[in-house]
Amino acid sequence: MADNEPFKPKNKDAQALKREELVKMLSEVSKKLYKRIATDRFRAKESDQIYLAYARTFSQISQTLNSCLKDEELLELERRIDELENRQKSEKVKEWN
């Protein structure tokens, strides 16, 4: 992968967002949007379209990240179940001997 490719991590040690961090960020965006529309008299601003485009993009990225986090959790659960099943099998073999 070339150094100028857009999706190459700049920091090898970069950590993925945790679900709790993602929820906080989404809450902040939601509060900002709600504050903007929950007025007695709404007036559209020129910058609204740009902000909404970023908010939609952020929402899509959040959904993708959440999906990846779920996949990681499922893989970890599968690994733990396999480990427990293997331990259980080895204990049964010891009992029979």
UniProtKB/TrEMBL annotation:
InterPro entries: DUF8136
Cited Pfam families: DUF8136
Domain DUF8136: 25-88
Name recorded for this polypeptide: DUF8136 domain-containing protein
Taxonomic source organism: Methanoplanus endosymbiosus
